[in-house]
């Protein structure tokens, strides 16, 4: 357990540095941030890469917060990653459906959509939400199989806390990026 707990944050830091180097290499006009400063390097990352790294951070922090044993860690980490992936994929799909609605009825809509087309899009959105909720419920059930009752409760609290931290980090990273422009 000690090796994994020490190794994963190091991997996350190295991953941030590597991803940052790739992004900086693709954008020669920006000077690379000094190595070892994960918060500065995160500024240069695309949102998807940063979200993946924050998910990895969340998995490590969850192990600590829930006191997951070494025997359960592999299963727990895989199921938590699957939950995160499901959540992110469904969020992207929902955003696409809503963007289509905006295109149809938003203030910049160039050709008004007929009611049947709008109704079909609303139905697609409702069906997506139903499927996403069922898929998310299954992912939580699979994760709960690895946790005892107290760990399940602590995990729900942990999720709220880590989401606030991740949002705060993203907001600060974007603010710093805007200041540099």
Could you explain how this protein is built, in words?
Helix content is 82%, strand content 0%. With 181 residues, the protein is mainly alpha-helical. The chain is flat, with a radius of gyration of 20 Å. The chain starts with a helix and ends with a helix. The model is unreliable at 1-43 (pLDDT under 50).
How would you characterize the largest beta sheet? none
| Topology as a string of helices (H) and strands (E) | HHHHHH
- pLDDT under 50 segments (min length 5)? 1-43
How helix-rich are the residues, as a percent range?
over 70%
Structural class, please?
Answer: mainly alpha
Beta-strand portion reads under 5%
According to DSSP, the number of beta strands is 0
**Rg from alpha-carbon coordinates:** 20 Å
**What general outline do the C-alpha atoms trace?**
flat
Determine the number of helices (DSSP H or I, runs of at least 4 residues).
Answer: 6
Mean pLDDT metric: 78
What is the chains' assembly state? single chain
Report the end-to-end length measured between terminal Cα atoms. Answer: 43 Å
């Amino acid at each position: 357990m000690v090796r994994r707990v020490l190794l994963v944050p190091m991997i996350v830091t190295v991953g941030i540095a590597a991803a940052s180097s790739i992004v900086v290499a693709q954008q020669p006009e920006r000077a690379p941030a000094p190595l070892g400063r994960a918060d500065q390097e995160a500024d240069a990352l695309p949102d998807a890469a940063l979200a993946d790294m924050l998910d990895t951070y969340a998995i490590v922090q969850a192990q600590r917060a829930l006191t997951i044993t070494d025997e359960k860690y592999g299963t727990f980490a895989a199921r938590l990653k699957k939950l995160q992936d499901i959540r992110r994929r469904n969020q992207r799909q929902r955003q696409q459906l809503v963007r289509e609605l905006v295109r149809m009825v938003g203030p910049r809509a160039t050709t008004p959509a007929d009611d049947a087309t709008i109704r079909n899009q609303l139905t697609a959105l409702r069906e997506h939400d139903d499927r996403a909720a069922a898929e998310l419920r299954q992912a939580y059930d699979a994760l709960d199989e690895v946790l005892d009752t107290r760990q399940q409760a602590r995990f729900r609290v942990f999720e709220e806390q880590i989401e606030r931290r991740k949002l705060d980090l993203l907001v600060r990273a974007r603010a710093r990026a805007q200041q540099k422009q």
